Amino acid sequence: xxxxxxxxxxxxxxxxxxxxxxxxxxxxxxxxxxxxxxxxxxxxxxxxxxxxxxxxxxxxxxxxxxxxxxxxxxxxxxxxxxxxxxxx
Length: 88
Hints:
This protein is an alpha+beta fold. The protein has one helix spanning 75-87; strands spanning 2-4, 40-42, 44-48, 51-55, 64-66, 69-70. The protein is globular, with a radius of gyration of 14 Å.
């Protein structure tokens, strides 16, 4: 699971927007993004024994998630992460 900010202009997650803030998903090319300040929790997946499965571990904000993708490390993402860690 990851925390992401969804672009209200195109609907894609923040990590679809490159360093120049262009949306890099398919033909979208939305510029600039209009990111919702409230992050949302979305599922992520991993490969286990050759099978794609839901990864239920919440990834730490600000960490490298995929090659070339760093998760948002904003204060709000950190707060949600900490609240979920305390509740677990």
